[in-house]
Specification:
Blueprint: E1 27-35, E2 42-50, E3 60-63, H1 78-81, E4 88-92, H2 114-127, E5 133-138, H3 140-149, E6 156-162, H4 168-180, H5 184-196, H6 202-215, H7 224-235, H8 238-243, E7 271-275, H9 283-292, E8 296-300, H10 308-319
Parallel strand pairs: 3-4, 3-5, 5-6, 6-7, 7-8
Antiparallel strand pairs: 1-2, 2-4
Helix pairs in contact: 2-3, 5-6
Length: 320
């Protein structure tokens, strides 16, 4: 899922970006050909490997949220794999970041499908010749990771579902609960904007930003890598508007009825479910993962950017 962030905040992104980070380990990047299943076109998926990918190692592949942001903020996970045999691999999903964009297909729900992104992940694994791997997905990325895992891929060894919903109706229910607990003036602005469709006003944007300061990331200011992701969607909102819609609070895009709950019993690998204390992905949103996946551990009230060292230790212990 993606918050609305005031455009004024985005101007600081160029000052500090993940691309300038120093990891103390080899970093490589490139573009992978990806044949679009519905059209046969060849797009390009941009990826970055932090560490050395070689035969016999098990990388951690991280899937970004949105859908519609880029993968830069996921590089905060690099310390998790540092000192371990396998690298961290991130990539910009098609239509996002440094991968091929298709702005002319905004609103085309036969092109922008969940199957498109599942196929792209399969393509990344194939083109990078990865036979064993761990997978972490954040928000929409957790949805994508779950869709991949229910296929029971042979090489998947560990799964991490980080602040993602098991169904979009549960997501909306959680947002409505959070909104009801806001100060009345802010609550009323959000409800009125959703009811009238007037979500492009300064008043609504300010109320939205207040909501996200409480339930998306409570750091002030937001980390630069997160702002970089918001800038990416400002530059090209095609994927987000088509699949999610203009608002987090009343999803109108193609994901509005999405659910993975009936298939969760198919996930057999060790799975870690995490969400934060004040997370948009409230407990009700992630509980089906815990109830339906057999080999699962749930750690609530932990968030990467607000409790970074605790979260990284948690991941490292689970994965290695």
């Amino acid at each position: 899922m993606l918050p609305r962030i005031a455009t004024a905040l985005l101007c600081i992104v160029g000052l500090v970006t993940s691309a300038n980070a120093t990891y103390g380990t080899p970093v490589s990047e490139g573009l992978l050909d990806f044949k679009i299943p519905s059209t046969g076109e060849i797009g390009k998926t941009w990826y970055r490997i932090i560490g050395k990918l070689k035969p016999g190692v098990r990388p951690l592949i991280a899937l970004h949220g949105g859908p519609g942001v880029n993968s830069g903020y996921l590089e905060a996970l690099a310390p998790v794999t540092k000192g371990c045999p396998g690298p961290l691999i991130v990539y910009d999903q098609i239509g996002n970041g440094k991968s091929t964009h298709y702005p002319e297909r905004i609103g085309n729900t036969t092109f922008w499908t969940t199957d498109l992104f599942v196929a792209e992940l399969d393509n990344v694994l194939k083109k990078l010749k990865i036979t064993e791997y761990d997978l972490i997905g954040h928000s929409w990325g957790a949805m994508l990771a779950a869709m991949h895992a229910v296929k029971q891929p042979k090489g998947l060894k560990h799964l991490v579902l980080w602040s993602g919903p098991a169904s979009m109706p549960l997501w909306i229910q959680a947002q409505n609960t959070w909104i009801s607990q806001l100060p009345p003036p802010i609550r009323d602005v959000l409800i009125r904007g959703e009811e009238t469709g007037e979500t492009d006003t300064e008043e609504y944007e300010a109320a939205s930003n207040y909501f996200y300061s409480k339930h998306f990331c409570r750091l002030d200011p937001f980390p630069a890598s997160l702002l970089e992701g918001f800038a990416a969607i400002e530059n090209d909102p095609t994927v987000y508007l088509t699949m999610n819609g203009p608002s987090e609070f009343s999803v109108t895009g193609s994901l509005r009825t999405w659910t993975i709950i009936p298939e969760l019993h198919k996930i057999k690998v060790p799975t870690l479910v995490t969400n934060g204390r004040y997370d948009e992905a409230a407990d009700i949103v992630v509980k089906p993962f815990v109830q339906k996946i057999r080999n699962v551990k749930w750690v609530s009230h932990t968030a990467l950017f607000e409790e970074p060292e605790k979260y990284k230790r948690l991941l490292k212990k689970f994965l290695y």
